[in-house]
């Protein structure tokens, strides 16, 4: 059954759906359809007033016909997909390029660091550099204008690729999507080490600048004006080496003109404002223990107006030079600290406690003294007194292990204590008794006694000079030296310097004996033990004994001798008679070895060989006169 068809009113399309008019015709353009139009579809529709063409449209160029809806949509879809693809591709490329802290495409000295973190890039660069032998090869350096060349090793002057700084440089800048960015490595060098190496290798070059100064001729000041020179400048040398190192070949560093920091005018000003007032009169130093007057001569000796290596003058008071210049009056105000020491009581070492000293603190007062010497009116300075601690305390000595007699040695002499030779032996023994040698230190007999002269109580006695016995001050001290040498020898201490006599004397052990002659011949030994070494001496009318107190390191030390060999006979020589002729009976010459054996736990654990060749002592005859003893 068919439903009755309702009467439908024509549909009116909203304004946005109004069919566009054809600009070439007044008729409206209808849309395409697959069915023929019906009465409803073709109902008359009145366009809004504003859509009606007016005379303003006459002559306007026709718009191209709109493409069919289906084709236009497909094109828009394709374009949108393409744009999205490009955006996505760009995002992927950007993500790839910026991956890591070092952008892609970055390399240093052929090492690809792109896309790595800073830590990974640093590790990769270090590995790459380690394989490059050129970076450790010596570098030839030419000093321009000096005609000098030098070879420096990179390791000696701190010449390296600064990996961290280079990675920092590599991490900066933009990435290279389709190329490579090469980063120049950052080079480091220690300019002071480089400067020292160049000067050592090249020797003298250039011309030294004359440093400015104000010097004193007595108490009269005199200006020394500066003059420029030509020299290396450490910063310029380092810059040249950094720039030319990786290029290979010889690196040229420049000589530059160097000028002292202080000018001639400034030197003249120092002369007038500092030097002349300084020596215009004494300076008074007050303290709780009294007053010290520093005369102009002492001021001139201690006022420093010389330039440093850059040519700069910084006036100052040298407290050590001042102390030396006023030593005598200063001694009345001060009390010297006394170190703890050893003495001998009952034949054994005993510690004597040290005492504090009192010192005028001239070092602290030096700035005030400098101000005072510049003044012509207020020239008084107050200085503090400070306590001076002893260098060695009782506790220090107790730790040294001076507890037992390690060795002792005695030699005999003739003539009694009244002879000059015997008195010289005893005088040396008195000076050495109580000498303390700390672990690792070297004892020098010449340094300890000083020159053995008449002033010290030494007398004339026979000495060997130019192969013959002649009178000389201190004769006989060689016997004390031999005794001391043997005591330290059998204590197992290290022999540093000794020299046997030219001729053999039967009062000494062969080979292990020593002469001495100030200042050319010395006897020295080193305390190579971990304990302190204390020397004790004793004497009688016919003997001298030296003992070493410490803690035993060796169970014992002994000597083995080889047979004597290459024995030679003496010849007879007649000398002019007189006080300088000392007759001798002559002694044979020979060569012999002595072996020092170190014993521990019943075994010989070390051997030392000593060898000496003795000349035959001539039979000296003094012109037929009676021979001396």
UniProtKB/TrEMBL annotation:
The entry's keywords: Membrane, Transmembrane, Transmembrane helix
Transmembrane segments: 76-98
Pfam families, per the entry: PG_binding_4, VanW
Region feature (Disordered): 1-72
Xref: InterPro entries: Glycopeptide_resist_protein, Vancomycin_resist_VanW, YoaR-like_PG-bd
Statement: the UniProt record of this protein carries the keyword DNA damage: no
Biased composition (Basic residues): 1-12
Transmembrane recorded as keyword: yes
Top-level taxon of origin: Bacteria
Domain called YoaR-like putative peptidoglycan binding: residue spans: 275-380
Name of the protein in question: VanW family protein
Organism: Actinoplanes aureus
């Amino acid at each position: 059954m068919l439903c009755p068809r309702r009467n439908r009113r024509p549909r009116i399309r909203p304004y946005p759906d109004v069919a566009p008019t054809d600009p070439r015709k007044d008729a409206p353009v209808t849309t395409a359809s697959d069915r023929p139009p019906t009465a409803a579809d073709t109902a008359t529709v009145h366009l809004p007033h504003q859509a009606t063409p007016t005379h303003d449209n006459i002559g306007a160029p026709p718009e191209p016909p709109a493409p069919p809806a289906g084709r236009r949509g497909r094109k828009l879809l394709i374009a949108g997909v393409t744009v999205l693809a490009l955006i996505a591709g760009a995002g992927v490329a950007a993500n790839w390029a910026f991956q890591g802290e070092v952008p892609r495409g970055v390399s240093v000295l052929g090492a690809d660091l792109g896309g790595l973190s800073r830590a990974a890039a640093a590790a990769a660069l270090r590995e790459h550099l380690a394989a490059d032998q050129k970076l450790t090869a010596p570098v030839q350096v030419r000093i321009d204008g000096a005609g000098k060349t030098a070879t420096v090793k990179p390791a000696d002057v701190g010449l390296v690729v600064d990996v961290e700084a280079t990675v920092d440089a590599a991490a900066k800048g933009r990435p290279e999507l389709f190329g490579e960015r090469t980063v120049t490595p950052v080079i480091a060098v220690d300019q002071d080490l480089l400067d020292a190496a160049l000067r050592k290798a090249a020797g003298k070059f250039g011309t030294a600048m004359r440093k400015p100064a104000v010097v004193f001729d007595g108490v009269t000041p005199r200006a020394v004006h500066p003059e420029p020179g030509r020299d290396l400048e450490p910063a310029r040398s380092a810059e040249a080496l950094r720039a030319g190192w990786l290029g290979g070949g010889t690196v040229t560093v420049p000589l530059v003109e160097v000028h002292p920091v202080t000018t001639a005018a400034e030197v003249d000003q120092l002369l007038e404002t500092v030097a002349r007032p300084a020596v215009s009169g004494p300076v008074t130093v007050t303290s709780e223990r009294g007053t010290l007057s520093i005369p102009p001569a002492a001021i001139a000796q201690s006022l420093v107006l010389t330039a440093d290596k850059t040519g700069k003058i910084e006036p100052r008071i040298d407290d050590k030079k001042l102390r030396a210049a006023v030593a005598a009056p200063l001694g009345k105000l001060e009390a010297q600290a006394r170190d703890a020491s050893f003495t001998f009581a009952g034949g054994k070492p005993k510690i004597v406690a040290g005492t504090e000293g009192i010192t005028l603190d001239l070092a602290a007062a030096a700035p005030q003294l400098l101000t005072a010497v510049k003044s012509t009116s207020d020239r008084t300075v107050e200085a503090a007194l400070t306590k001076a601690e002893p260098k060695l305390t009782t506790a220090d000595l107790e730790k040294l292990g001076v507890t037992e007699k390690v060795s002792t040695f005695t030699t005999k002499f003739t003539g009694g204590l009244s002879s000059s030779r015997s008195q010289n032996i005893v005088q040396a023994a008195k000076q050495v008794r109580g000498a303390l040698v700390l672990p690792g230190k070297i004892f020098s007999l010449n340094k300890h006694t000083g020159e053995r002269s008449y002033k010290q109580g030494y007398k004339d006695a026979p000495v060997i000079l130019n192969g013959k016995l002649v009178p000389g001050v201190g004769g006989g001290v060689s016997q004390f030296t031999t005794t001391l040498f043997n005591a330290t020898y059998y204590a197992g201490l290290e022999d540093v310097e000794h020299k046997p006599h030219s001729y053999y004397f039967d009062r000494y052990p062969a080979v292990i004996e020593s002469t001495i002659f100030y200042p050319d011949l010395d006897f020295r030994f080193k305390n190579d033990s971990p304990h302190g070494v204390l020397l004790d001496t004793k004497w009688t009318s016919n003997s001298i004994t030296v003992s070493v107190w410490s803690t035993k390191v060796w169970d014992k030390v002994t000597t083995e001798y080889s047979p004597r060999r290459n024995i030679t006979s003496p010849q007879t020589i007649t000398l002019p008679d007189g006080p300088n002729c000392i007759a001798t009976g002559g002694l044979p010459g020979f060569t012999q070895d002595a072996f020092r054996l170190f014993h521990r736990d019943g075994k010989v654990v070390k051997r030392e060989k000593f060898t000496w060749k003795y000349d035959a002592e001539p039979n000296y005859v003094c012109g037929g006169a009676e021979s001396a003893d």
